[in-house]
What does this fold into?
Amino acid sequence: MENQSTFKKHHVVIIGAGFGGLYAVKELVNSDVEVTLIDRRNFHLFQPLLYQVATGTISAPDISAPVRSIFGDKKNVTIRLDIANGIDPYNRYVQTKNHSRIRYDDLIIATGVSHHYFGHDEWEKHAPGLKSVEDAFEMRRRIFTAFELAENETDPGRRKQLLTFVIIGGGPTGVELAGALADLAFKTLDGHFHNIDTKKECEIYLIEALPRVLPTFQDKLSDITKTYLEKMGVKVIVNCPVVDITADTVTYKNEEKNIVIETKTTLWGAGVKASAWGGILQEAAGADLDRVGRVLVKKDFSIPRYKNIFVIGDLARYQGENNEFIPGVAPAAMQAGEFVAKLIKNRANGKSTNMEFKYKDKGNLAVIGRNKAVADLGFLKAKGLLAWILWLFVHISFLIGFDNKISVLIKWALNYFNQDKGTRLIFIK
It folds into this structure.
């Protein structure tokens, strides 16, 4: 057990090394507070590019950075590889799996979200989501295994099933997965097999329950995205909720009729639910949750009754100006992390904490394929090559670590010119 006396200065515990947690630590580096960062993994992961790991464009280390390589030399930052699994808000300590109790003066929780199957958790084993490196590896294994098994399959019906891919969810994750998979099947792997013709035999479906893909984008950009995908060979199905998923089929509802697609590879990009910390805070601290378990926070990201417990990033449900909720995107988490860290610094130094958070919307970007993207930056709306270049440089700028940026840029350049994706290592279980 760690005692408060262990920390001579104001002690801040941060749970989660995602964008929110990372930017909170960054703001507190070299300040007059002690920081302990807890995460179950020893690296920061850039989740928006996981779909490229899943489809073999880049490797996982390209979008990861060891936390110790970022903060290991900072004297006021302690990094713990551990799992935080409980809290005593009255006595101000966090319970962890390996290090018992860690006391805090202020606590920042930034543990994000996981997949949400809308009451059908049994679908998860048939349709993996994409929130972690492990998820990306599993998707990649399923995608490339389907091609390999189809190459050896003599039964036409089963081969067709193996070469049919279904992506559920028409948000940025689903759209980007569909575009990357279309490039892979219809371009990159074309001619790589003797017994199958991926360009002619593959079928890729993108199914969205709402009336259009990219529903948070302007209607015009959503329509452009749908057109791009269809020209790339993706069959886009909108306004049709999925009603069942098995190991061999996906069933969706079209008006009053159920349509069945036979497939061996279903990928999930539809919904999210809060991490376990939503429930932990509800039980231990009386926090209020929304319908998917996100924590309803006050204007300074603290929870009611406990002004020293803050929730940021995707786990937080923050209502900003005009009663609009800020989105669960990386820039929002970064801004929240910086804001809360500044507030804590002021509190620790006896300065005013009467601060107002103002979210700066950086816009929306989604890539569909080679030279195909859409961008809505507020002051600028773009499509095609210009949007693709904007997407490229925005994502490169967010990558943590100079080596990562150079590595990803080189690999993207090579892939652009020769379209030969090389990160395809798989095995059969």
Q: What stands out?
A: The mean pLDDT is 89. DSSP finds twelve helices and 25 strands in the chain. Residues 158 and 186 are 20 Å apart (CA to CA). Residues 133-152 form the longest helix (20 residues).
